[in-house]
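quick q for whoever's on today - can somebody do inverse folding on this one?? i tried earlier but teh output was garbage lol. tokens:
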């Protein structure tokens, strides 16, 4: 045990008694599910299935969804092995409830305190734990290793901030990374960073690739195709500050198509309707009886991005038009042959966007020139569709590489 890890365990142990109050406060702010706070303390009464169990963890929506191909292969190739998936956000929990295959269990990840980590390991007793991207929680990792759990860190990456923080504690980083039986870096840059911290990297595999195309309800697809007179423009996964940018760009278009605007957090739907109406645009919520005359349909529903990407003439991948978000997944559009436009702020998806840009499969626009980018795609749909074909070819190749990485993880499974 290094000094910094010992201090961390002592501090989190001292704070653990006040965790219930802190979690209750977060629940009042909508950041926790008040009915499932016991899971965050590893005190939930959920029964563990008999036999071996594999635990997979992704922090939020993107990481959790990248786990799904591995979950599906585990259920298909190791049906006798139970699968537990944990995540940390209410949005990811809602999506996983819809997307996890039968037999897989979802729980909220416990807080990273010694007691909670110990209870979690005792209750679930996993044979293998798979962490996605940069989830290096010291207490969970140390307790898992002490319990004899095999550990994998996949699609591994470290942000500039995380790398700097762990570099100031090299002994702690080396201790934690040495516990992994397999580390697969997201890209060459991530590999260099983990190796600089003492990790033994076994290869590269980005689990954001390898997923199947987003699913769709065929009845809903047919109904929406009949409702839209022409393919809509899709604005996907907006954050505060981006809605104003895209609405201003849409308002300035000389020829305006129908628009589907899907906020990243659906509870923001009514506020976006107000922003649209303030610009003279008719707007309606998807969750209510939509107005057929609406210029903007605000998609305040979960699990329907597969529907919108299939319908759209072109799309804007938001989370990239303001700083501090880091961009969202451009691969979902590519797998469904939907042309994509993105803003410049895509640090969470640097490798994917770099590959797509090199393949001429994505259009990068500044927030100020978004209107011109939209007008260009709408005016020349053939050029936009050719860009989508190039994006699909690039993503198909990377998906095949990622599936090979999944096979290496399955080798660790009981």
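ok took a stab at it. sequence:
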């Amino acid at each position: 045990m290094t000094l910094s890890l010992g201090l961390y365990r002592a501090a989190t142990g001292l704070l653990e008694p006040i965790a219930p109050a802190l979690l209750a406060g977060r629940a009042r702010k909508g950041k926790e599910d008040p009915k499932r706070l016991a899971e965050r303390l590893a005190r939930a009464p959920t029964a563990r299935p008999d036999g071996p169990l594999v635990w997979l963890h992704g922090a939020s929506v993107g990481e959790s969804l990248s786990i799904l191909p591995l979950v599906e292969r585990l259920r298909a190739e190791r049906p006798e092995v139970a699968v537990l998936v944990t995540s940390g956000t209410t949005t990811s929990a809602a999506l996983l409830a819809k997307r996890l295959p039968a037999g897989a269990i979802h729980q909220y990840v416990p807080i990273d305190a010694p007691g909670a980590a110990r209870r979690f390991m005792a209750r679930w007793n996993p044979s293998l734990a798979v962490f996605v991207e940069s989830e290096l929680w010291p207490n969970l990792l140390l307790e898992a290793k002490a319990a004899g759990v095999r550990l994998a860190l996949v699609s591994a990456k470290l942000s500039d901030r995380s790398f700097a923080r762990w570099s100031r504690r090299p002994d702690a980083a080396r201790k934690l990374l040495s516990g992994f039986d397999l580390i697969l870096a997201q890209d060459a840059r991530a590999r260099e960073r983990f190796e600089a911290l003492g990790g033994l990297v076994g290869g590269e595999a980005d689990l954001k690739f390898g997923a199947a195309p987003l699913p769709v309800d065929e009845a809903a697809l047919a109904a929406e195709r009949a409702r839209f007179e022409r393919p809509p423009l899709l604005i996907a996964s907006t954050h505060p500050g981006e809605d104003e940018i895209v609405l201003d760009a849409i308002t300035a278009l000389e020829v305006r198509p129908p628009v589907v605007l899907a906020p990243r957090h659906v509870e923001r739907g009514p506020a976006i309707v107000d922003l649209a109406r303030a610009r003279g645009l008719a707007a309606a919520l998807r969750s209510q009886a939509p107005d057929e005359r609406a210029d903007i349909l605000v998609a305040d529903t979960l699990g329907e991005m597969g529907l919108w990407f299939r319908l759209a003439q072109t799309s804007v991948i938001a989370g990239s038009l303001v700083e501090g978000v880091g961009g969202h997944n451009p691969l979902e559009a590519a797998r469904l042959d939907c042309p994509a436009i993105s803003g410049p702020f895509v640090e969470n998806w640097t490798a994917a966007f770099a590959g797509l840009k090199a393949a001429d499969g994505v259009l990068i626009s500044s927030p100020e020139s978004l209107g011109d980018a939209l007008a260009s795609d709408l005016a020349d749909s053939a050029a936009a569709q050719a860009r989508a074909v190039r994006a699909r070819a690039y993503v198909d190749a990377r998906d095949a590489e990622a599936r090979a990485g999944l096979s290496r993880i399955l080798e660790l499974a009981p």
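fwiw The mean pLDDT is 94. also The domain at 218-398 is CATH 3.40.50.2000 (Rossmann fold). so keep that in mind when u check it
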